Amino acid sequence: MKSLTILGFVLSAVLIAMACVKADRVRAWRESLNPSAPEVPDAAFVLARILFLGMAAVGVYNGFQGIALSDGVAWSDDELTSAVSGATDALDGAVAYAGPHEGVPTDFDGDYAMTVADEVTSHGGGDAPGPGTVDAALTGPKAPEEAYYTITADGTPTTFCLHVKIKRDKSDDYQAPGIAGGSYPQYAYVHDVTSRRGEC
């Protein structure tokens, strides 16, 4: 895609250069090759210039369209770096709740990987690709309260390691209303999330 875009810009530049060639120079060149050739009227040069400039404009337009399309399907290093930083800040400090017999509420082996990928995608900015272009793979040592994710994205070799640890936070515990006027406790767990460049 990139090589075709560059080729389009080069061809457009050649067409513009051709349109700028003076009529007298073209006539002199034709006469040196074929002295008996009929003289080219000025109207033909005007028409040729319009044609060359029109083709060049189409080439430039298609080139910029190609750049926009490329930006929409591939992440850059800067885009992914910014997105991971934003996702880390958003995920850090998030609170999840569980009942007294439910254990740690975060499913590191399942839903949380999708949460990480979606969060990175949402912080990619207007030019970054959409959903399905970021992967958060569970890697490294893991425990019920801790996990590591290697984050990759389409279009860039850059990787990030996101570390998440979930801790009990009794200050956010509360009593949830139950059946028949009773209540049951909800235990709070807070996510401590950090990230760094490179694989886990």
List the helices and strands and how they pair.
Layout: H1 2-19, H2 23-33, H3 42-73, H4 77-91, E1 95-98, H5 111-122, E2 134-143, E3 146-153, E4 156-168, E5 174-177, E6 183-197
Antiparallel strand pairs: 1-6, 2-3, 3-4, 4-6, 5-6
Molecular structure report:
The protein is α+β, with helices and mostly antiparallel strands and 200 residues long. It has two domains: 2-73; 77-197, no CATH class. 44% of the residues lie in helices and 27% in strands. The protein is built from five helices and six strands. Strands 1, 2, 3, 4, 5 and 6 form a six-stranded antiparallel β-sheet that branches. Helix 1 runs antiparallel to helix 3 (42-73) and helix 4 (77-91) crosses helix 5 (111-122). The protein starts with a helix and ends with a strand.
Q: Please tell me the total number of domains.
A: 2
> C-alpha Rg, in Å?
31 Å
Query: Would you tell me the overall average pLDDT?
Result: 83
Characterize the quaternary organization of these chains.
Answer: single chain
Strand content: 25-35%
- The total count of helices amounts to 5
Order of helices and strands: HHHHEHEEEEE
Helix content: 40-55%
Structural class: alpha+beta
Low-confidence stretches: none
Label the overall shape. Answer: rod-shaped
Counting DSSP E segments of at least 2 residues, the number of strands comes to: 6
Main sheet makeup: 6 strands, antiparallel
Distance between the termini: 32 Å
